[in-house]
Amino acid sequence: MDKITGFLEVGLNEGGEIVVNHPDLKPDENGVGHIVFSANQARHLARLLDKHANQSDMDARERRESEARKAAEAIPVDRDCLVLTDGSPVTADHREIDPSTGQQKGYVVLCEAERQKGFVRPVRRSYVHRTCGMTTSMGLALAETYARDPQFYSGTFCVYCRTHFPLDQFIWSGSNDVLGS
Ligand SMILES: [Zn+2]
Q1: Low-confidence residues of the chain, pLDDT below 70?
Q2: Contacts of 172 (CB under 8 A, 6+ apart)
Q3: Residue ranges near ligand 1 (ion) with Cβ within 5 Å
């Protein structure tokens, strides 16, 4: 609860609605209660209402995401439905390293149908190599594979080091979450 001039309170109830409490609203001679603000107080109230409205939206989004995650976790991952990142069939030589980039010829991902069964983590597109501090971004199919099945990969590529390393050397950008967790 945030208080305005000591008596007006703004907060959220359990249903995510914004509530304004005024415990001491004295009616005038016509039985009408007034809440009077200076311009600054009115702006402050507007900011408080806006802040709580945003909080309510955020809470609702988190609840929806958590429910979607639980639903996705209930569906076992089929690690046999595999393709390369461009959707083409997995080739025997996809792990061959291209010496000019240090990357593999191709990378295996879960097939589109498997990824569409739902994500147990957010879809995150970039990660930081903790050893060198540099950020690497990846395509959507790879990011969705991590989101569907966080333990699918054992290692990943750093564009700066131009080499693959174990996942525990990397964290998702803007977080402290280690890849694979
Ligand atoms: Zn690196």
Answers
A1: 1-7
A2: 124, 126, 127, 128, 179
A3: 129, 132, 158, 160-161
